Structures are given as C-alpha cells and as structure tokens.
Amino acid sequence: MNWLDEGALYSSIGLFLREDLGRGDITTQSVLARNARARGRFVAGEKMVVAGLEAAEEVFATLDPQQQLEAFAADGEEVEAGKVIARTSGFADVLLAGERVALNLLQHLSGVATVTRQFVRAVEGTSAKIADTRKTTPGLRMLEKYAVLLGGGVNHRYGLDDGVCIKANLAGIAGGLRAAVKSARATIGHVHMIAVEVANKSEAAEAIEAGANVLVVDGLGPAELADLIGHVRDLSAQVTVEVSGSITLENVRAFAEAGPNLIRVDALTQSVKAMAIGFQIQPG
Question: CA spacing 20 to 30 A to 271: which of 12, 28, 35, 187?
Fold first, then answer.
C-alpha cells in the first residue's frame, strides 16, 4: 500500500466501526454461538473498476488481527458482473460485524474509480487529464482520492495547505488579482505553485504577468475556452490551464479538445453512484 497512509487508514476504519457497532452487534450476539465460523465472498453485481480492497481487509483485521482477505481482483482492475472479487473466512461474528462497513467502502470507492475511468476514456487522444477536487466526503478524502488514481485520474490539491488558489472573492478582498498574486508570491516564495481563477483574456494576461503558474477557468463554454487558451499559449507556453464547472460525461470531450491541461470534475467524488457488490456468507 504505497499511496495510502496506513496509520490514517487504521484510525479511520476504527472510527467507522465504532459508528456502526456502538456497544456491539446485539443481533449476532443473541443468535449465534460465540465461536461459530463462516465463509464470506464479495461478488460484483455489475461491471466496475474495483477499489477499496485494502480498506475492506483493514475492516476485518481491526476486528480480528488474524482475519485476512483473499483477493481475486486487484484495486484498479475492471471486472464483469458475477466476478468474485475477494473472499474471507473466520469467526462469523467478525464477518457479520464488519460486513456493512466493508461493503460501504468497497461500493463507494469502486463507484469513484469506475466513474473516473469513464471520464478518462472520454478524453483519450487529447492532452487533458482528469482531476479530482476537494469536494469529497468528510472523512473519506484520502480513500476517495486514492480511488480516483485507480480509475486513471490525477489528484488535485489534497487540502488548503498544499497549494495556493486565488479565486475571485479572495482577489477582491486583497485589492485585486495582481495584488493577490504578488502577495502570495512574496509570502510563499518559489516552492508552491500559484493558481488564479480567471474569466477572460484580460485577467489571464494580468495573472501571468503577476507570476501565476496556473490559470483556472470556470464558466466558459468549449468554444470560448479554446479562444482563451489560444491567447494564453501566445503569452506563455509554461502556464498550466485548468478548467472546472459543469463538466459531464456528455460534454467533457468538447472541453478536452479546447486544449486545457487539466479538467477538474466534481462528479468524481461528489455525486458518485455506489457499485452493486454483494457479500455472501455461508456457514463454514
């Protein structure tokens, strides 16, 4: 697990389980013998990109350190409906106690990876990359951004502390776009990139002249965007252009062909559909 922070994952899983278990699974405790054993397997109910297997394994391992998940697919792999993704066996109360949390994570993260893959395929052949945003589920940012990578996308800012992004509201308070960029550059030096939200050619030129590394364009249609990007390229070949806004699978190709470097898509994490995955448990 190279990208995920194992300590952060362990802490998060503990919180998720405490939220669901409370003082204990009273249904299982009142029905099954304490040492009853069972076998369980995760089965894909539809075509998807698998994501979250390591998180699911951590759910069961948190409940029982001896519990392991045997995977038959890898995170990032595309599988068909009916595919057995993974299986596990052990104490029945552990499998039943961890079932919902493990499924919630697998279904949601696989949804993120699957929709990301769809967007990535929609822009194949262009120079644009599909990127996520900070519009993530509280508590799940690390896992959701990991799922975006599995789907073939790229991560944008993880948080407010790893990049400067000057939007119109901030620039207005700071005394204008040029003043905001110059203040940021003087404060943070050359280490961090400075991104600036621009709406037209004039603002783009002002931002570039002030020292911006990245221009963020929101609200323009593909034709207007292409015209603005052409102007930006005439001013600087090094400046990165990002586009955001109402990006859908139906229009993302048109935006990609306008020539941006990055297309930030809210839908990767904000309105994703959970994938159909079942957890089948048998005595054993």
Answer: 12
